[in-house]
């Protein structure tokens, strides 16, 4: 791939930063809201490859990849509009991507939306215990309540949820909801636009729950609905809260950012297991109920997706992404 031979170049970004005001050169003076779609941004700085990726990540974006003839034409037209003739960084050309050919599927929720979501094509049994782990990159300039995932059953909509509260100038807070009972918010991480590894667990035994971020416990307690198992035959939705069974999404409670490598166990993982997951991205098989796989997801059409290395500490922390269909 010829673009790997460039040492210094300008950057071309598929940019999905959500901010009230953007001062980047090609878009100077443009006002952006959290409801805006993704767009291209050209940054005329000369940077090395890893520095270019960091710039993208800090803006909740990613180096662009051409995955179709339409995107190729979009790219060419964008270059022409700015009279760009020199070489630029892009992630690559992926015109015929194959499933899992480039690592982990990454879901890109660009801005608040009542449409963007992914649905797990998985039949759920009743669960006495559960652990969900996921890599999350919050958009640092979209504020308010945010739903990382929601699980509903026909008889009860708010059966199991992970919710975030993002307040300007404050750390991100996370809370679990089980059978309609909302747990307390725990301070999770700085709102820094970087990737974080989040694991949440719950068990009917005493209603004990744990929230862990980047391998460390940030919140725990008990008495969070110890009266019943999590119900069976539900709908698990990534990125939206369900106001009806499997639907009725609201943009003000939607997720904005990137999500990848969401896995589910039908037991409580201990902190040593969570720490190992966070470092190495090596799946723990005992109790593994759902494994992250593009073939097990129904992805809403407006939700963009790309491919990259899971951002574990034991692997490349700067996530290089590839756009394409699953």
Keywords:
326 residues; mainly beta; eight-stranded antiparallel β-sheet; 10% helix; 38% strand; globular; disordered C terminus; C-type_lectin-like/link_sf
Describe this structure in words.
With 326 residues, the protein is mostly beta strands. Helices cover 10% and strands 38% of the residues. It has 3 helices and 23 strands. The protein has helices at 49-58, 69-81, 271-280; strands spanning 9-15, 39-47, 62-63, 65-66, 88-89, 92-93, 104-109, 118-120, 129-138, 144-153, 156-166, 172-178, 181-182, 186-189, 196-203, 209-213, 216-221, 235-238, 257-265, 288-290, 297-299, 304-308, 321-323. Strand 12 (172-178) and strand 13 (181-182) form a beta hairpin. It is globular, with a radius of gyration of 20 Å. The protein starts with 8 loop residues before the first strand and ends with a strand. Mean pLDDT is 77; it is low at 1-33, 94-102 and 315-326.
Indicate the topology.
Layout: E1 9-15, E2 39-47, H1 49-58, E3 62-63, E4 65-66, H2 69-81, E5 88-89, E6 92-93, E7 104-109, E8 118-120, E9 129-138, E10 144-153, E11 156-166, E12 172-178, E13 181-182, E14 186-189, E15 196-203, E16 209-213, E17 216-221, E18 235-238, E19 257-265, H3 271-280, E20 288-290, E21 297-299, E22 304-308, E23 321-323
Parallel strand pairs: 1-5, 4-6
Antiparallel strand pairs: 1-2, 1-3, 7-19, 7-22, 8-18, 8-21, 9-15, 9-19, 10-11, 10-18, 11-12, 12-13, 12-14, 15-16, 16-17, 19-20, 22-23
């Amino acid at each position: 791939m010829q673009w790997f031979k460039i040492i210094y170049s300008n950057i071309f970004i598929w940019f999905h930063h959500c901010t009230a005001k953007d001062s980047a050169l090609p878009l100077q003076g443009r006002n952006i809201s959290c409801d805006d779609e993704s767009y291209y941004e050209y940054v005329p700085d000369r940077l090395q490859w890893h520095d270019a990726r960091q710039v993208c990540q800090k803006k909740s974006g990613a180096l662009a990849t051409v995955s179709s003839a339409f995107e190729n034409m979009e790219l060419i037209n964008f270059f022409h509009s700015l009279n760009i003739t020199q070489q630029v960084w892009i992630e690559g050309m992926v015109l015929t991507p194959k499933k899992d050919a480039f690592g982990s599927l990454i879901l890109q929720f660009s801005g608040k939306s009542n449409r963007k979501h992914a649905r797990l094509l998985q039949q759920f049994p009743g669960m006495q215990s559960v652990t969900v782990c996921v890599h999350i990159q919050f958009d640092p300039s979209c504020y308010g309540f945010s739903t990382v995932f929601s699980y509903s059953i026909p008889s009860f909509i708010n059966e199991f949820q992970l919710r975030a509260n993002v307040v300007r100038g404050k750390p991100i807070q996370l809370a679990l909801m089980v059978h309609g009972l909302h747990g307390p918010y725990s301070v999770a991480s700085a709102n820094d636009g970087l990737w974080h590894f989040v694991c949440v667990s719950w068990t009917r035994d005493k209603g004990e729950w744990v929230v862990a971020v980047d391998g460390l416990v940030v919140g725990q307690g008990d008495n969070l609905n110890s009266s019943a198992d999590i119900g069976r035959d539900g709908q698990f939705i990534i990125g939206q809260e369900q106001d009806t069974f499997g639907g009725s999404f609201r943009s003000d409670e939607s997720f904005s950012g990137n999500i990848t490598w969401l896995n589910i166990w039908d037991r409580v993982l201990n902190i040593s297991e969570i720490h190992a997951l966070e470092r190495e991205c090596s799946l723990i098989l005992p109790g593994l109920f759902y494994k992250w796989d593009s073939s097990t997801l129904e992805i809403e059409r407006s939700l963009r997706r790309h491919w990259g290395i899971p951002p574990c500490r034991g692997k490349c922390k700067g996530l290089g992404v590839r756009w394409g269909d699953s």
